[in-house]
Design goal:
The chain contains 13 helices and 23 strands. α11 packs across α13. Helix content is 29%, strand content 44%. β9 and β10 form a beta hairpin. It is elongated, with a radius of gyration of 38 Å. It is of the alpha+beta class and 600 residues long. It comes from Mucilaginibacter lutimaris. This is DUF748 domain-containing protein.
Length: 600
Amino acid sequence: MATNILKYRWLKILLIVIGSLAIITVVLALCINSILAPKLSAKLKEAVLKGTDSLYTINYSDLDLNVLQGRAVLYDLTFKADTAVYHQMKKRGTAPGQLYELHVKRLAISGAHAFELYFKKKLNIGRVTLNSPEIAINKYLQKPDTAKKDKRTIYQKLSKSLKLIHVGEILLTDINYKQRDYTGPKAALSQLREMDVKATDLLIDSATQKDTTRFLYCKDVTTQLKNYSSKSADGLYTFKVKTVKLSTQTKKLTVRGVNLQPVDHNVFFQKSKADRFTVRIDSVQFNNFDYITYQKEQSLDVKRVVMANGFFEVYSNYNGKLQTTDRLVTFPHWAIRHAIKAAVNVDTLDLKHFEVNYKQLNKKPMKTGVVIFNNISARLRNLTNNKAALAKNNIATASVTSYFMGKGKLNLSFNFNLNDANYKYNYKGHLGPMDIAAANPATMPLAMVKITSGRVKSLDFNFGSTQKTSTGTVNFLYSDLKVDVLRKDDDKGYSKKSIISVLANSIIIKHDNPDDGKTAPRTAKVVFIRPANFPFFKTVWLSVLNGIKACAGVGEAKEKGKKEDAEKLKEDQEKRLKKAKEKKEDEDKKFKEKMKGKKN
């Protein structure tokens, strides 16, 4: 049947015409590709030269162009600075502070409109893809620019060659990024791998040339870094981050899987006299992160930061030397003012589901005690060293809720004066009901005291402080407090000092506050003078502890006196026991001699 159909003359002619047109189209496409390829290459190189004031050049080994499909592939592409031009700019004082370099084996362009570029001077591209590019940035000291600057925008520089540049999507995957910083005494190298960048809707035309809502002329630039890892110079810490993702459109920076892991404590404390820190945070989210300000000025301006599911541990260095310098540097408001060199302005910092541990080794029994604050939620406000922000509000606040040793609910609030010369601050807190024995993981190894019974009804404190003094009140209500005083036991770990325990419970400790449930409870007024070598949290803790002791009927003088009384009673009892033993031995000796005489 097909043979009969082909006998029709008109159909034969139609097929011949179609076949001829197809051949002509293919031939024309090949001719156009071969003709346009060098012209497009020239246009591209010209655009780069004009857009960068002849500082940068672009080269590639081959261009595979398909005009009909709107596709082009560039091989072995290199974008780098012309060193001769750069040195000339340095002499004129117009050289930039950074130089960029790009190497990529294959750059693919799709959805391109070659005819529109050639005839209308409009570069319109659907997608640009760069796989495994190598990007290098060299940072140099920049002299003050005294020469007359070219204040034209990129569009104004390119407008004679191109009326419009538009790229729907730019993808850079598995980037190898290096930065060399030559601004210091020694060259510093930082390197990132496994980084992806996605830029959408890049548009350079007369309307967008001064559009401040775009970043690098793009509607959005999303950067993602994966599996970053580095080690401290001394090799004692490994720092890892699972992912870092930034979107310039949403102004959201998200960091996941933060992990600061030290080496084993035995190795750490052999090599370092500092305390050992461990940090793990599931996620950190910066909302309304002003990336452009950060990039230009290295300053952090964030509306809200949220840290979720974190663990923070401090292991006190048992080989460390006693600090003799002023530990004012550990005060939070000192750190904000002086330790952070860059400008910082964080409106709100929220912590959710955190745990904080403090560990310390008591060398005498060789036991490690731990104090635990878990299920922490906190909100910190107005963390800033920005002068304009401080003029409006110079008070930073912190509201904290946690559970002490997983049992008692603890509410804390702090206020810090960020520009006071005496570093004023105040704090207050409330601890709810709990069994005091929950503190044994700390008291047994560190104080050699086991709490056998006792219940906290409430603990309330309120202090006003400067860098030198803390003044406040403490109300500590409790009942049925009893303890065992311990000694080291190689077999069992601990054993009870029976006599001292009896004396402690009968003389030193007040078992209840209030004593009989009817009289007014004991309230402590505390004035604590901070020794210069005491850090911030130790100062806060000892101020409260002095109040707790006073509420328990044991001030420093009373405690010393009652300990002396207890020691005296112990000595008297030991003397009585010794005399009784000697008397018994003497009676036994006389009895044996008497019995021996009877036998004779």
